[in-house]
Amino acid sequence: MGILLMVIRGVLMASERGRAFIVSLAACFSLISLSGCSFGEAEGEEAGRGTGVDAIDDVDGTEGSGLPLDSYFASPAQAQMLDRAQDVLKKQCMERYGFSYTPPPLPEVVPVKGVGNRYGIADPADAANFGYGGPDMATQADDPPLGEDEAAVFNGPEELDPDSLPNSQEEVDDLPASTSNANLVNGLVVPPGGCIRESFLKLYAPRAGAVDILFTQDLERESFARSRADSRVKDAASAWSACMGRSGYEVSDPMNPGRELNLAEDLSGEKATAIAVQDVECKKRANLIKIWFAVESSYQHEVIKREADTLKRAKAEHHERIRFAESLVK
Asked: Which domain of life is it from (predicted)?
């Protein structure tokens, strides 16, 4: 989920809706989270059958390709470049106020095969090597410590109402040059939301009316919720559960069996590894990953058709953003 890392770092000052979505997405899709979304909780969606998934046995994009909406997201390499570009913008912003800023190193990009662990652990080698713990994941380093004035410029005012912030850099540029209650540092007005917000707006919302960077993630979240409630996915999940039961593991949630089996204390131990190996084998026997991928692909094709105009704009803005980022990190 390279895009998730990019959004989390970029939307530090985003709306409450955006922050809530990020938390929800992380909880649902993280392999190492054993207390996330349980199977069947589908945001109010009732179980049903989507359109266009009649020959799911002929659909197999889980290994070499991704889901239809993936083409509207930054690739892992692009996401890291966008992170680097945002760091450059932070540095430029801080320098305007006379401060030197050295961004922390970015974590290494970890490539994901196909849909990765979107539908629960799926790779036999990962299961055998790491159980439900997964390989050690690199974490984003903290920003360097800042002095009082530096922090004011970098973060903006401590008491900040996110809903009062401009939604684009164009709106910021149109603000009056000075106000009576402006926050001044070294004689200059601090940008609304500080350099963090400025770097985000310049990269993701340079103009008023830009497509919300979370728009495509919202569509992906919708397709996942609808597929999880689909009767074909539920039937495959039941077959997986029965397979696990025959091995002595009473579980119902292919996304989160570790929670039901109380494995949180030892995700990569001998017991967890044995269960994870059986988990992957049962998913294969139930054809769960292939079916779920096919069903969600169908739902994504539906939302792509429904939101074609906005997605076309989003893709054009993404290409423009990548070109801008390339100019910053060269």
From this structure: Bacteria
| CA pair distance 156, 151, nearest whole angstrom | 7
Q: What is the DSSP letter of 89?
A: H
Q: What is the pLDDT of residues 176-232, one digit of tens each?
A: 765 544 678 888 888 889 999 999 999 999 999 999 999 999 999 999 999 999 999
* 39 DSSP 8-state letter: T
How buried is 190 (Cβ within 10 angstroms: 0-12 exposed, 13-18 middle, 19+ buried)? buried
DSSP 3-state of 65: coil
**Residue 146 CB: number of other CB atoms within 10 A?**
15
Count Cβ atoms below 10 Å from residue 188 Cβ, excluding itself: 14
Tokens, residue 163: 């809903």
Give the position of tokens 């292919």: 254
The two structure tokens encoding residue 327: 């100019």
- With tokens 């966008």, the residue in question is 82
Give the separation between CA 240 and CA 176, rounded to whole angstroms: 61
Model-level pTM? 0.78
User: Other C-beta atoms within 10 Å of 12: how many?
Assistant: 15
Instruction: Check: CB of residue 2 under 8 Å from CB of residue 112.
Output: yes
Neighbours of 54 (CB within 10 A): 10
DSSP 3-state of 118? strand
Task: Locate 227 and state its tokens.
Answer: 């597929």
